[in-house]
Specification:
The chain is mainly α. The chain is built from 46 helices and 2 strands. β1 and β2 form a beta hairpin.
């Protein structure tokens, strides 16, 4: 081994540099093979003190001992060398004797590496300086330049001064406009004051250091290209800072028209304001204003559309001759989803239609008037000569999705290899209840049938698990993971437990202790659900070790977790024939899953079960002979902005059940249990529903606070399981509807969409109580737990599917609570967004033909002004009582 390699291994960087200075090129190339071998050795070695010492000198030596620019670039940017780099100055000193062409090649190769490679900008810039090559303009180089300029200024030095000193300034500034996701650098790297990038670039353009025309063109081109919202805001601000003259604005009229048509809202708003100024100054022809209006009035943003209508009104007032050209554009506003926009457009038509004698303009607007809301359509009949609506509106038909139907579980895989594939996939993705239960039953069956074949098939799966050791002398430690109190967090943890048990990685004493004494679960609202879920897994694992079960009694028939009573009886008959001993937890889970709602099927199965003559058959017969008791009465409690629920005991779930299942029937208290625990996995909630497939109210009560975080604390994914809750069985009572209310007011769009799916599912199954849900939403909005704007988005989404009557039934119980608060001068959180809720309600009422009075609506509609709240209150009043539409 060479002296250089010894010094590298010892971590003596200074000595390595000294040796490299004295070595000719042939010796460097000769020793590089040893460096490669050392690098390979360090890759496999633990990241200990020796490895940390060796990497920095190895990094330097590898750069110096290679001759090809491509090889050096690969070494510098290698992932395994990323945390070992030395200063760029040292690397530049070592590479400084290379040819300028070679250095330039290296600079460009490094610049082409992704930014994630972490190549220092100072190294790339130093190579450019030494070689005199053209500056690279790759994303990594430009972002590095931005950080260098704005991140290293000190004392009196500013961004402006550093830019002035840069010899490559014009080329790099031009590259800024071609680089994606750089807008964020402008704000946080150098602040927002006089030392900002915006101010520096504007100053350099004003003094002639940068070409102002080229800078403006680049800004406009970047905005036309689109991109992230951050980039759009940054380049729009730079364009505004440049303060274009009227001449510069006029020269780019076609660009402004394109931006007003298709750009993001802030950019389109700026383009609209520029075009409006040009139009009022007489710099745009009526044809150009009409072209602009045709595109802007088609956009969904109310702010842009209203501003365009205001502009049209001003132009029409000043120039009556433009009416024939401009008025046809109002047809686009007639079709806008916002009724306020429709009304403004109709008022413009009423005011200015007499300025044109064209019958074609009037006919075109009259034809578009059928897109107006009913109250405005009545006005359009007299003003525009539009065709009047039919005296008898068509009969409304509610459109709801087909109620989802549960899928029957397929039998467990016949081959051990197929089962191993399913288990491996499940442990990577958690899976749903049906997939998990099928795999669980398959493990039990194959362990009973051919344990050695199962172990062989599972070997590749087990080899990747954290608990598996290849050491033949491995003995589980007494305090290993599976002996801890919080050992099973997810369904995948349960599969880990079974696999580890099959491979002898869990002590029998650990399994027996869990079966005899249960799990030391946290005192939280979820613990009864988690304890029952875990108890079956632990007992199955123990039986795998001591007395394998032939199959599981509790495997559900349907994907929701329901088990058909005749199937359970057949399984007990098979157990009797085989002489198999029933697992207490497995049988308890089977009882909780067996269908009792179908009383005829339950009675037939009860007779067969009683005839078995076994203790389990007698217990099943007694269970099937009883109807599901009503859920215990709820009691509402408030906690901050939240409304939560408590309920009393359910004795049926405490009698003749194993100890780990009895807490399911005990009272739920809001303030006596912990709110924060390790049950964070959203996937577990589906398995809890599968635990009690005909008693979803019990599950909903215990997860209610979790779901409320979607609205109150903006937690993502907290309402994701609501569609499964809606598809589950049992009464959809107070807890289910409160969960749904929180979901409809969730912060994240995907959570609101899940809640809408649940809403439509309950409606399709005729289990939705719109009055209860609406009243709950009204109270939650008053308390600040749900924001009206979020609810309006959810309601609009549901109505767009065709469920207008369903949404109206909900909102007609929500709105009186909020309007009553307005009647006494309420201006709190419930007032913000109330206009949007009224708009959705009005649209639903118009579409489904709702009639009648809504408490406190008339008082709001009689207010003066034209605010969103007042205008939509008037619209809703007109929809509910058409005779008041005048």
């Amino acid at each position: 081994m060479s002296v250089l390699t010894d010094a590298v291994r010892a971590g003596r960087t200074a000595e390595v540099v000294s040796l490299l200075d004295e070595m000719p090129g042939t010796e460097r190339r000769a020793v590089f093979a040893e460096l490669k071998a050392l690098r390979k050795e360090l890759r496999a070695a633990p990241w200990d003190a020796g490895s940390r010492r060796a990497h920095p000198p190895l990094y330097v030596a590898g750069v110096a001992c290679q001759t090809g620019a491509a090889a050096v670039a690969a070494w510098i940017a290698a992932a395994d060398m990323r945390w070992s780099r030395t200063s760029p100055a040292l690397l530049l000193r070592i590479l400084g004797d290379r040819a300028p062409e070679w250095l330039g090649d290296l600079a460009h190769r490094l610049a082409q590496r992704p930014e994630s490679a972490g190549v220092p900008y100072e190294l790339m810039a130093g190579l450019v300086r030494l070689s005199g090559c053209p500056v690279p303009t790759t994303d990594a180089y430009v972002r590095g330049w931005l950080g260098h300029v704005a991140g290293t200024w000190q004392g009196e030095e500013t961004v402006l001064n550093r830019l002035r000193q840069d010899p490559h300034l014009p080329r790099l500034v031009a590259a800024l406009f071609e680089t994606e996701d750089v807008g964020g650098f402008f704000g946080w790297l150098a602040g927002d004051g006089p030392n900002s990038w915006y101010g520096a670039l504007t100053r350099l353009a004003d003094e002639g250091t940068l070409d102002r025309v080229a800078l403006v063109d680049a800004c406009v081109a970047r905005l036309l290209r689109g991109g992230s919202a951050t980039d759009q805001r940054a380049f729009l601000r730079l364009l505004k800072e440049l303060s274009l003259t009227p001449g510069e604005q006029r020269e780019r009229t076609s660009d402004w028209l394109a931006l007003a048509s298709g750009a993001a809202s802030p950019v389109a708003s700026h383009a609209q304001s520029v075009l409006g100024g040009l139009a009022l100054a007489g710099e745009l022809t009526p044809r150009q204003v009409a072209e602009m209006s045709d595109t802007v009035l088609f956009r969904p943003e109310r702010k842009l559309v209203r501003a365009q209508l205001v502009l049209l009104g001003r132009i029409l007032t000043r120039d009556a001759s433009s009416a024939e050209t401009l008025l046809p554009a109002l047809a686009h506003a007639f079709a806008h989803e916002d009724s306020d926009v429709q009304e403004r457009a109709l008022k413009l038509a009423e005011r200015h239609l007499k300025k044109t004698g064209s019958a074609g303009v009037r006919a075109g607007l009259a034809a578009a008037a059928d897109q107006l809301i009913p109250a405005l359509r009545v006005r359009a009949v007299s003003v525009l000569g539009a065709a009047s609506a039919a005296s008898e509106p068509p009969v409304y038909e509610e459109v709801l999705p087909a109620a989802p139907r549960p899928a029957r579980l397929a039998p467990a895989p016949e081959s051990a290899a197929e089962l191993a594939e399913e288990v491996g996939a499940l442990m990577a993705s958690e899976g749903d209840v049906a997939t998990f239960e099928r795999a669980l039953d398959g493990l039990v069956r194959h362990a009973h049938r051919d344990r050695s074949a199962l172990l062989g098939a599972l070997a590749p799966v087990a080899a990747r698990r954290w608990w598996n050791s290849t050491d033949p002398g491995y003995v589980p430690h007494p305090d290993d993971h599976f002996s801890r109190a919080d050992r099973v967090h997810t369904a995948a943890d349960g599969l880990d437990l079974l696999l580890a048990t099959l491979r002898g990685r869990v002590r029998t004493a650990t399994l027996l202790a869990a079966v005899q004494h249960g799990t030391a679960a946290a005192a939280c609202a979820h613990s009864p659900l988690s304890r029952a879920f875990e108890a079956r897994l632990w007992e199955v694992a123990y039986r795998l070790r001591s007395d394998p079960l032939p199959f599981l009694l509790s495997t559900p028939t349907w994907s929701t977790g329901l088990l058909e009573p005749d199937e359970l009886v057949a399984r007990l008959e098979a157990y009797r024939r085989l002489g198999a001993r029933v697992s207490a937890a497995d049988f308890a889970q089977a009882l909780l899953r067996v269908r009792r709602a179908d009383r005829a099927a339950a009675a037939t199965a009860a007779g067969r079960a009683a005839a078995l003559g076994t203790a389990e058959g007698t217990r099943l017969a007694r269970w099937l002979s009883q109807e599901n008791p009503a859920p215990p009465a709820h009691r509402r409690r408030t906690s901050g902005a939240r409304i939560l629920l408590e309920h009393g005991e359910l004795l049926e779930l405490q009698e003749d059940f194993p100890a780990e299942f009895r807490p399911l029937g005990r009272p739920v208290t809001v303030f006596g249990e912990r709110w924060y625990c390790h049950h964070w996995s959203a996937g577990l909630r589906a398995h809890w529903l599968g635990l009690l497939p005909e008693r979803r109210e019990l599950v909903a009560t215990r997860v209610l606070r979790d779901v409320s975080t979607a609205a109150v604390e903006d937690v993502r994914g907290a309402a994701a399981f609501l569609p499964l809750l809606a598809e589950s069985g049992g009464e959809a009572g107070e807890a289910v509807h409160l969960c749904l209310a929180y979901g409809l007011g969730a912060r994240q769009p995907e959570d609101r969409l899940a809640a809408v799916d649940a809403l439509l599912t309950l409606a399709a199954r005729e289990q939705l109580d719109g009055g209860r849900l609406g009243a709950d939403l009204g109270q939650l909005i008053r308390r600040g737990a749900v924001k009206p704007l979020r609810l309006a988005e959810s309601a609009r989404t549901a109505a767009a599917t065709g469920a207008n009557a369903t949404v109206w039934e909900m909102l007609r119980h929500t709105l009186p609570v909020l309007l009553a608060e307005q009647a006494v001068g309420g201006t709190g959180a419930s007032a913000r967004g109330l206009g949007e809720l009224l708009a959705v309600a009005a649209e639903c009422a118009e579409r489904c033909g709702a009639r009648g009075e809504l408490p406190h609506l008339a008082q709001t509609a009689r207010r003066r002004g034209s605010s969103r709240l007042v205008s939509q209150a008037r619209r809703l009043r007109s929809a509910l009582a058409p005779e008041l539409a005048a």
